């Protein structure tokens, strides 16, 4: 959604994007992504993990070098679609919003058989369209961000009028999501299910994001400090996975007693995952590597 908003902001009053913008965004996403993916692959190779050429190609194209990296191929594909989506916003934003919402909802519904492990003929297809890197399952958010970018005042005012209702709806979907996951766990017959985005998860996300926009006049604690992290978020995103793995394995081998203290273990990972990338970025920008900072951290 934020990336869609940024695309609309870049389009400006002309409400159109040229390919120079798209190429620029893709370049500054892809180069750091390829670098950090390669580092992750090398790190895994040092742990005696071996890859075929096809596996490496798939890892780069679908963001499998690290659990979180699917997001970069997803963003690249949405930016490649952005000139077309902006034309659709200009044509009829309501139809675009409704159609992308319906498409994403149907995609999430198709994921339920995959989640509970049903062996259906179309299960592999359902699994594919719900892959994190595939744009179909996320196109509503990008379109929604574009529409917000072009109609900020109108949407802020409308959401502000119903902000408390949106907050209540968020709480309802939050609670419903807990019960939904318990039901899915029972239906699957498993003791644990990997992460998936369900329809209720998406409804909760839509409600809480809309409520956040509706409460735009409220200043949250430490908001300025958090906003300072905004331009550095992509660099943190790229670098944190490697250092989380190193920290977790180090704790496992040298301080295993911390594994019995999950809150402390979690806190250590948060500090490591945030602080080390920020320190690296600070060191880079203050060194001879400053000219290539953008290619390292975006």
From TrEMBL:
GO biological process, one term: enterobacterial common antigen biosynthetic process
Compartment(s) of residence: Cell membrane
Lineage top rank: taxon: Bacteria
UniProt entry keywords in alphabetical sequence: Cell membrane, Membrane, Transmembrane, Transmembrane helix
One Gene Ontology CC term in the entry: plasma membrane
Molecular-function annotations in GO: O-acetyltransferase activity
Lipid bilayer topology: Multi-pass membrane protein
Pfam families (alphabetical): Acyl_transf_3
Segments crossing the lipid bilayer: 28-47, 68-89, 128-150, 162-183, 203-222, 234-255, 261-280
Domain Acyltransferase stretches: 1-280
Family from the record: Belongs to the acyltransferase 3 family.
Protein name, as recorded: Acyltransferase 3 domain-containing protein
């Amino acid at each position: 959604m934020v990336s869609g908003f940024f695309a609309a902001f870049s389009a400006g009053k002309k409400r159109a994007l040229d390919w120079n913008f798209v190429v620029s965004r893709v370049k500054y996403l892809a180069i750091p992504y390829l670098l950090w993916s390669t580092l992750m692959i090398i790190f895994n190779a040092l742990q005696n993990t071996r890859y075929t050429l096809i596996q490496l190609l798939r890892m780069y194209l679908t963001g499998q070098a690290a659990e979180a990296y699917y997001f970069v191929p997803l963003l690249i594909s949405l930016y490649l679609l952005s000139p077309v989506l902006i034309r659709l916003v200009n044509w009829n934003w309501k139809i675009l919003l409704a159609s992308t919402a319906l498409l994403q909802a149907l995609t999430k519904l198709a994921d339920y058989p995959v989640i509970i492990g049903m062996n259906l003929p179309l299960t592999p297809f359902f699994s594919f369209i719900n892959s994190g890197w595939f744009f179909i399952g996320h196109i509503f958010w990008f379109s929604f961000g574009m529409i917000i970018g072009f109609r900020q005042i109108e949407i802020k005012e409308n959401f502000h009028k119903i902000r408390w209702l949106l907050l209540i709806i968020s709480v309802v979907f939050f609670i419903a999501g807990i019960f939904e996951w318990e039901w899915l766990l029972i239906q699957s017959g498993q003791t644990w299910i990997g992460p998936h985005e369900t329809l209720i998860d998406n409804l909760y996300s839509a409600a809480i994001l809309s409520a956040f926009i509706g409460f735009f006049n409220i200043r949250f604690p430490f908001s300025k400090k958090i906003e300072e992290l905004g331009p550095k978020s992509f660099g943190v995103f790229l670098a944190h996975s490697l250092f989380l793995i190193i920290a977790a394995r180090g704790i496992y081998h040298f301080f295993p007693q911390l594994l019995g203290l999950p809150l402390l273990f979690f806190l250590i990972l948060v500090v490591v995952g945030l602080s080390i990338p920020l320190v690296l970025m600070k060191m880079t920008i203050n060194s001879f590597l400053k000219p290539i900072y953008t290619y390292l951290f975006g």
